[in-house]
Amino acid sequence: MELDDKALITRVLDNRDQRAFAELVKRYQSQIRYSQRQLTGWDEALADDLAQETFLSVYRNLSKFRGDAKFSTWLYRIAYNCFLQHKRASRIEEPLGDDDVTPDTGTTDSDIDMHRDLARALQTLPPAQRMAVHLYCHYEMSHSEIAEALDRPLGSVKSDIQRGRERLKAQLEAWAPEKT
Amino acid sequence: MSENDFSKLDDLFASAKASEPYFPAENFTMAVMAQLPEAEGLSDKTKNLVVLLGTAIGSGLACTVMPIGELARSFDMLSFDLSAVAVVGGAMMLAACGITFLAQTDRI
After folding, report:
1. In chain A, which residues have their Cβ closer than 8 Å to the Cβ of B6?
2. Distances (CA, A) of A69 to A25, A83, A142, B21
3. Burial of A97 (0-12, 13-18, 19+ CB in 10 A)
4. CA A175 – CA B2 distance, rounded (Å)
5. Given this model, what pLDDT does residue A180 score?
6. What's the pLDDT score for residue A98?
7. Which of B11, B28, B39 sits opposite A33 (nearest CB)?
8. Along the 180 residues of chain A, how does pLDDT read in single tens digits?
9. CB-based contacts of A39: which residues, under 8 Å, 6+ apart?
10. What string of H, E and C letters represents the secondary structure of chain A?
11. Could you give the C-alpha distances from B67 to B62, B71, B74, in angstroms and in order?
12. Mean pLDDT, all residues of chain B
């Protein structure tokens, strides 16, 4: 029988059961790696480094998880903090030129290109807007869940999502496929 | 498309959600697990159990070999009173607490 997140966390905390922690990593690694790709403009190596740092931080701080929010919400908060720490420390994220801001419409329509273009469009948003829009539009999290994940007031989150969507709409309008 | 019409954007995110790639877990998970700090011995719960069990077993053994009758007679001969015994017992209890504290905080 598959254990739920709470049971796995209890095993890690009580018995330092690393197999239980490995199960948590397996369960969430793909989502976190995808989210870090969206936050970093689809920089795959950096995204995987940040995803690893996210899970190491989760392991170090697991005893602080209170359990009153979903584990995935707490996990996204740590992932976002890892991204912010990296951004503050390195400042390597160069502003994109106009050619990069507008996704390439004619090269290919493969899925990966779509994800990469979306990530590059998201990269033009400030970090809080970027993560809020990603969690709202991609993972369909509620405003309150996002506020919890980002540790920001609900009103700020709503405003971030609205502004971020408006800005993305302006950038992606020409690229998004027409409805049939 | 009106200013508040996000249908194209929503379609794009829906396409992205539907085609979100799954990244294989094995290598990534191994890399994370390899970086976890070494397990630092026993968990707190196990340490407490070990201390309790050790105390119980030690006390049991001490009782079986201790010449309690002789000790009692010695106390009479040396005119120990109960308050002195209480002081010694209290000191031993404090020492045991100190050792337990040091063990639990990984100082010994």
Report:
1. 165, 169
2. 18, 21, 13, 26
3. exposed
4. 17
5. 43
6. 39
7. B28
8. 788 999 999 999 998 899 999 999 999 999 999 999 999 999 999 999 999 999 999 999 999 998 888 999 999 999 999 999 999 988 655 544 434 433 433 334 578 888 998 999 999 999 999 999 999 999 999 999 999 999 999 999 999 999 999 999 988 776 655 544
9. A47, A50, A80, A83, A119, A122, A127, A130, A131, A134
10. CCCCHHHHHHHHHHHCCHHHHHHHHHHHHHHHHHHHHHHCCCCHHHHHHHHHHHHHHHHHHHHHCCCCCCHHHHHHHHHHHHHHHHHHHHCCCCCCCHHHHCCCCCCCCCHHHHHHHHHHHHCCCCHHHHHHHHHHHHCCCCHHHHHHHHCCCHHHHHHHHHHHHHHHHHHHCCCCCCCC
11. 10, 6, 11
12. 78
**Contact in structure between A146 and A139 (CB atoms under 8 Å):** no
Instruction: Give me the amino acid identity at B86.
Output: A
DSSP state of B41: S
Residues of chain A with C-beta less than 8 angstroms from the C-beta of B13 = 118, 137-138
Longest dimension (CA), chain A: 55
- The reply to whether residue A55 touches residue B8, judged by beta carbons under 8 angstroms, is no
Minimum distance, in Å, between the CA of residue A76 and any CA atom of chain B = 17
pLDDT band at B43 (very low <50, low <70, confident <90, very high): low
Of A22, A60, A114, the CB nearest to B33: A22
C-alpha dist (Å) from residue A9 to A82, B46, B50: 21, 17, 24
Using a cut of 0.80, tell me whether the model's pTM lies above it.
Answer: no
The residue assigned the tokens 């191994």 is B30
Q: What is the pLDDT of residue B57?
A: 82
